[in-house]
Write a structure and sequence with these properties.
103 residues, alpha+beta, Double Stranded RNA Binding Domain, 3-stranded antiparallel sheet, 4 helices, elongated
Length: 103
């Protein structure tokens, strides 16, 4: 598997709303199959984008270190991780790695 394949793996998403104090809520999102990959925020959409940034950065870091990320299921054939990385405003490093990876 290459980086594009690893970034196309669908991970289980956990979500919960947490009342931090009376009347104040935030959302906690996590990919439990990627230990430590989680995000919190007041707006679901923003928190999901942050979680996706963390997922991509975590997987890229693991691959660059020579460690395969968890592969709980097959990559999605229709996924476009390069588009996702650019949409999330990730560093040029991630886009460059994906652009250079074979399809």
């Amino acid at each position: 598997m290459d980086l594009r394949d690893f970034l196309s793996i669908p991970y289980l998403l956990e979500a919960e709303a947490v009342e931090t104090e009376p009347g104040k809520w935030l959302v906690r999102l996590a990919y439990p199959e990627l230990p430590g990959c989680s995000a919190e925020g007041a707006v679901v959409e923003d928190t999901l984008k942050e979680l996706e940034r963390r997922r991509i950065e975590m997987i890229v870091d693991l691959v660059e270190a020579g460690t395969a990320p968890p592969v709980p299921r097959k990559p999605l054939a229709a996924a476009d991780p390069l588009w996702t990385a650019r949409d999330l405003g990730l560093s040029g490093r991630v886009a460059a790695l994906l652009a250079g990876a074979p399809r």
